[in-house]
Each structure stands twice: as C-alpha cells, then as structure tokens.
Design brief:
alpha/beta; Rossmann fold; seven-stranded mixed beta sheet; 10 helices
Length: 219
C-alpha cells in the first residue's frame, strides 16, 4: 500500500521573505517603471474604507490597481520584479529548510495571500510542488482587478489547502506548516508539525500555549 505524501507548507511574506511583502515590492516596481497611472493608485486607495471594515490592509483586500492591465505583460513584469527585487530578500535559513524538506522527498507547497502572478516565479525558483495564491479575474488577456475564487488569507488558507488536498491527498497528520502571522494559526493547526516561524508576538504566545515549535529564520 502506497503511503500518502508528506507536505511542507510555507507561508511567504515574513516566513520565506524578509522586509516588505511581495505585493508591496511589486507596487513599488510598477510605479517606478511607469506601469501604474495615478488613476490606478486612486482606485487602490478608494478601497481603504471597505478594507478597514473587513479588517484587511488596502493592498490585501483591493486589487483594483490591476484593472484593465494585460495579463501576459504583467506576468512578465512579475518575473522581472522577482528577479530584481524579491529573490535577494529570501531568508537563507528559510530556503535551507525548504531544501531540507525536498531532500526528505516532502512536497513543498506555498500558500499565500499574495498575487498568484508573483507566487509563480517564486514557486519555480524553489521547485515547489504546488502553490496557492490570490488569482485575479480575467476577460481574455485583460485583468479585471477583482479576486477570483477564495482569497487565501487567515481561515481561507485552510479551505484552499483542503481543496488542493482533494487531489494531492497529503498526509496532513505527518505534514509540516510554517507561518509568521497570528492569522496563520489556522493553517498551522491543520498539520501534525506546525512551526511558528519569525512569529509576531500574538502567534508566539499562541504557539507557546499550544506547544508548537517556534523558530527564527532571521530578518
């Protein structure tokens, strides 16, 4: 009887990546190279009250700055942004842990609320088995600036992982998960080996009460 595969599930921002989030770096990149207009920023800022009501950051909740942008072009920009401004901020100790899991033949899965456009080059760089990111609705080759499907944040990281697991059939009881934010406690709670990584103070306290492993991969 074949054994179920073991997953090593990684959050990205703050867990694998130090400093500003992938999407903040992408916004800065787009503005610097003239790929965003003032109207795009206005649409982004226009979601501030809705975002606040949902308890989310403006960037996390609002993708209107991508409205009417060509998908193929922005996919290439995402790759270039990763190569120039993101890859060098990956935490060496975190990447060592990714490689260790791969040596154990564990399936590396990236689960992040960041844009799937940005998660794609990272997943390729790490040779990850699967990725779960925020997808944007499209009309032909045009991005519509609206989130397609579930936004993998907080509890939705769990539901999107379980949806993936319907076809991947991981042994979650033997699997590992890494996250840094208090909202990642839901994701960490569904595996047998949760690791609070570079945790914020609330996750650190929660993890200590749960008896979870706590690790620092540096900043």
């Amino acid at each position: 009887m074949n054994q179920k595969p073991i997953a090593a599930i990684f959050d990205v921002d703050g867990t694998l990546l130090s400093g500003a989030s992938m999407e903040v770096r992408f916004l800065q990149y787009l503005w610097r190279y003239g790929e965003l207009r003032a109207s795009d920023i206005t649409r982004l800022a226009g979601g501030i009250f809705q975002a606040a009501a949902q308890g989310r950051s403006v960037i996390r909740a609002n993708k209107a700055y991508l409205q009417n942008k060509p998908f193929d072009h922005f996919r290439r920009l995402a790759q270039d942004c990763f190569d120039q401004h993101i890859r060098h901020h990956l935490l060496p100790k975190a990447i060592e842990r990714v490689r260790w899991h791969q040596q154990q033949e564990h399936c590396v899965v990236l689960v992040s609320g960041t844009l799937d456009l940005l998660l794609e080059p990272l997943a390729q760089h790490l040779n990850a088995c699967s990725r779960i990111g925020t997808k944007i609705e499209t009309d032909g080759n045009a991005l519509l600036g609206k989130i397609a499907g579930e936004h993998p944040y907080a509890k939705a990281k769990v539901s999107t992982l379980l949806a993936l697991n319907q076809c991947r059939n991981f042994d979650l009881a033997k699997s590992f998960a890494y996250g840094n934010h208090f909202t990642d406690r839901y994701l960490l709670g569904v595996v047998g080996h949760p690791v609070a990584t570079n945790p914020d103070y609330r996750l650190r306290g929660f993890a200590a009460k749960q008896g979870w492993m706590i690790e620092e991969f540096g900043n």
